[in-house]
Amino acid sequence: MADVEFEIQNIVLSVTYEGAELNLGELAGSLKEARYDPSVFPGIAYSPADSAASFLIFSTGKANCVGAKSVEGARDAIRDLTDEIRESGVEALPEPDVEVENMVASVDFGRKFDVEKIARSFRNVQYEPEVFPSLVFKLDDPEATILLFPGGRGVCMGIKSEEDVGRAAERVTEVVK
């Protein structure tokens, strides 16, 4: 698999401050770059200027973190968010439970694909070139979806670890030899 390369483009994580109830009006007032309009959306949209990660924060103590390109980068951004929430006056804020929900990675397979032939040969694919120029390849192990382009590039999504990106790319390479 040495000729297959990938790069994480986005990671989505769920963040839960168990038992916390947040006053979003007050919190939005203390977070720079926060947008909060409860008549439009029931949470705070927060994009810190010094981070690739952005957040949706809800009064229930739950949040979503998107935009980071590494789990470590996301965890750093979540740690910074936690500190900012505490500094806003939420003193008893617990350490958050954090779970990776999805990763998206670009993949370079180092070879071209005959996507029409692949579409005719496999049942777990979709290919509608008049709608979208890639073949949609669904895998069970690891559970992933790969958009496979004829030029040899792809997009892998639905995975929860970098290891699974590599495994998914390897499986596609094995299956479409």
TrEMBL record:
<dbReference type="GO" id="GO:0003677">
    <property type="term" value="F:DNA binding"/>
</dbReference>
<dbReference type="GO" id="GO:0006352">
    <property type="term" value="P:DNA-templated transcription initiation"/>
</dbReference>
<dbReference type="InterPro" id="IPR012295">
    <property type="entry name" value="TBP_dom_sf"/>
</dbReference>
<comment type="similarity">
    <text>Belongs to the TBP family.</text>
</comment>
<keyword id="KW-0238">DNA-binding</keyword>
<protein>
    <submittedName>
        <fullName>Uncharacterized protein</fullName>
    </submittedName>
</protein>
<keyword id="KW-0804">Transcription</keyword>
<keyword id="KW-0677">Repeat</keyword>
<dbReference type="Pfam" id="PF00352">
    <property type="entry name" value="TBP"/>
</dbReference>
<dbReference type="InterPro" id="IPR000814">
    <property type="entry name" value="TBP"/>
</dbReference>
